C-alpha cells in the first residue's frame, strides 16, 4: 500500500495503517489514494491553507474559539472522525497564550477552512470545492509537527526520534519502515544513505547490522545508538572548553564526575550523586557506574575573544547553565577567575520512555542496542587573560555583538530542530 508524504511527496510501500511519519522530512504520510482525491497536488493544498492562514488575526482567532462547538460537531462527521483529536488539539493550541504566533496562524487557518470551506479560495486553484477537510487538517498537523504533542492525548503523540538500521547490502529488506509504540525505524542499505541525504557522524565508516539515531539538532547526521550517550556527553564538555577559550581563558582545570545509569528506572537525583562519589561499589549498589576524570589545559592568548566560536555552539542552548553570566561578566567587567559547576543528563536528548522501547526490541533483535544514560557533574576552575584593548575601549558594543551572535545561532538551531 503506497503512502505519500503531505509535505515532500516522498513515497513508501508500507503496511496498512492510519498514518506514518515521513523518514525523509518528518511530516505525516497518508495513503496515496486519500491524497489523490484532490484535483490539485500538495502544493495546491498548502497554497489554500496559506490563503486561510493570511486571514487569521487576533479577532479571527476569537471568532473561531467562540464557534468551537460548531466546528467540533462537524468533526463528528464520518470523514473527520479519525482526526477529531487533532482538531481538539488545534483548538487547545490557539487558546494557549504561550503558543507561537506562527503555529496559531497555521492552526487557525485549518480551523477557519472547516468553518467556511469555500471562502478565500484563490482563483488559480480551480475545482478546489472537492477538497477534503481531512487533508487540510493533515497538512496543518504536519507543519506544526511535534509542537502539537502537548495538546494531544498520550496515545496520539507524534514521535520525535527516527532510528536507522543499516542492513548488509546482501540482505533483502522486506519491510523498509516500521512504526510501533512510538519507535520509528527505517531499514536501509549502505548505498541508500546518499538517497536520503544522510551521513554518519564525523564521516566514520558505515557499520552494518547496527542501529543509528539522528543527531538531536542535525537530523541528517547519524549517531550509533551504542555510543550515543558517550558522544553527547563528551561533545558537551568539548564545547564548553572551546567557549571558555574563546572568552580568553588562560588555564582551565576541570573535574568530571560521570554517572552511567545501569537501569532505565527512576529520575535523576544529583544530591544522591554527591553521596556515592566515595566509590564504585557504592555506586553500583545504587544502580550507577561511577568514573572520575581530572584535566588541566592552557591556552594561547591569540584565541582571546574569538566571537566566531559563538556561531558554532550547539549544546549551549539546551540546558540551563552559568555561561550567560560568564559571557556578560567577562566582557563588561573583565572577569579574571571563575568557578563553575554544571549538571546535565543525556536523557534530555533521548528520553527514558524511548530507550525502554528500544531495549524491549533488543530482547527480540540483538541489533537494537542502546547505550546507557550518562549523567555528568562538571567542576571548572578558570583563569582568564586580561581583556584585549579593543574590548577594553568598547565593552558595551562588544557585548551587544556577542548577544546578536547568540540570538542568531539560537534561531538557526531552533529551525534545525523543528525539521526533525
UniProtKB/TrEMBL annotation:
Keyword Transmembrane: yes
Transmembrane as UniProt keyword: yes
Major location category of this protein: membrane
Subcellular location: Endomembrane system
InterPro entries linked to this entry: DUF1232
Residue ranges constituting the DUF1232 domain according to the UniProt record: 104-138
Keyword entries, A-Z: Membrane, Transmembrane, Transmembrane helix
GO CC list: endomembrane system
Membrane topology type: Multi-pass membrane protein
Signal sequence, start to end: none
Name the record gives this protein: DUF1232 domain-containing protein
Species assigned in the record: Halobacteroides halobius (strain ATCC 35273 / DSM 5150 / MD-1)
Organism taxonomic ancestry: Bacteria, Bacillati, Bacillota, Clostridia, Halanaerobiales
Amino acid at each position: 500500500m503506497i503512502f505519500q508524504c503531505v509535505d515532500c511527496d516522498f513515497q513508501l510501500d508500507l503496511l496498512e495503517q492510519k498514518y506514518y511519519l515521513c523518514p525523509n522530512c518528518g511530516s505525516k504520510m497518508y495513503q496515496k489514494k486519500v491524497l489523490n482525491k484532490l484535483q490539485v497536488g500538495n502544493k495546491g493544498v498548502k497554497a489554500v491553507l496559506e490563503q486561510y492562514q493570511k486571514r487569521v488575526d487576533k479577532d479571527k482567532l476569537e471568532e473561531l474559539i467562540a464557534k468551537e462547538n460548531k466546528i467540533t460537531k462537524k468533526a463528528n462527521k464520518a470523514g473527520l472522525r479519525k482526526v477529531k483529536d487533532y482538531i481538539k488539539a488545534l483548538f487547545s493550541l490557539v487558546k494557549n497564550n504561550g503558543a507561537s504566533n506562527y503555529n496559531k496562524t497555521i492552526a487557525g487557518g485549518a480551523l477557519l477552512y472547516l468553518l467556511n470551506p469555500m471562502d478565500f479560495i484563490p482563483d488559480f486553484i480551480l475545482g478546489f470545492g472537492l477538497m477534503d477537510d481531512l487533508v487540510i487538517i493533515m497538512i496543518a498537523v504536519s507543519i506544526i509537527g511535534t509542537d502539537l504533542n502537548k495538546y494531544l492525548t498520550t496515545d496520539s503523540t507524534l514521535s520525535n526520534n527516527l532510528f536507522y538500521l543499516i542492513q548488509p547490502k546482501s540482505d533483502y529488506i522486506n519491510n523498509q519502515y516500521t512504526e510501533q509504540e512510538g519507535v520509528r525505524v527505517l531499514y536501509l542499505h549502505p548505498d541508500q544513505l546518499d538517497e536520503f541525504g544522510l551521513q554518519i557522524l564525523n564521516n566514520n565508516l558505515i557499520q552494518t547490522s547496527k542501529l543509528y539515531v539522528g543527531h538531536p539538532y542535525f537530523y541528517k547526521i547519524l549517531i550509533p545508538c551504542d555510543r550515543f550517550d558517550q558522544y553527547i556527553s563528551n561533545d558537551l564538555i568539548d564545547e564548553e572548553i572551546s567557549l571558555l577559550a574563546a572568552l580568553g581563558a588562560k588555564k582551565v582545570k576541570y573535574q568530571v564526575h560521570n554517572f552511567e545509569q545501569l537501569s532505565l528506572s527512576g529520575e535523576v537525583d544529583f544530591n544522591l550523586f554527591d553521596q556515592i562519589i566515595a566509590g564504585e561499589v557504592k555506586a553500583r549498589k545504587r544502580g550507577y557506574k561511577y568514573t572520575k576524570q581530572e584535566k588541566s589545559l592552557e591556552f594561547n592568548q591569540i584565541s582571546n575573544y574569538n566571537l566566531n566560536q559563538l556561531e558554532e555552539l550547539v549544546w549551549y542552548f539546551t540546558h540551563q547553565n552559568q555561561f550567560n553570566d560568564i559571557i556578560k561578566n567577562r566582557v563588561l567587567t573583565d572577569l579574571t577567575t571563575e568557578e563553575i559547576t554544571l549538571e546535565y543528563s543525556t536523557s534530555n536528548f533521548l528520553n527514558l520512555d524511548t530507550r525502554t522501547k528500544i531495549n524491549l526490541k533488543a530482547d527480540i533483535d540483538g541489533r537494537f542496542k542502546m547505550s546507557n544514560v550518562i549523567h555528568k557533574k562538571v567542576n571548572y576552575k578558570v583563569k582568564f587573560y586580561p581583556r584585549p584593548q579593543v574590548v577594553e575601549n568598547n565593552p558595551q558594543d562588544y557585548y551587544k555583538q556577542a548577544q546578536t551572535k547568540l540570538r542568531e545561532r539560537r534561531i538557526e538551531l531552533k529551525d534545525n530542530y523543528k525539521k526533525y
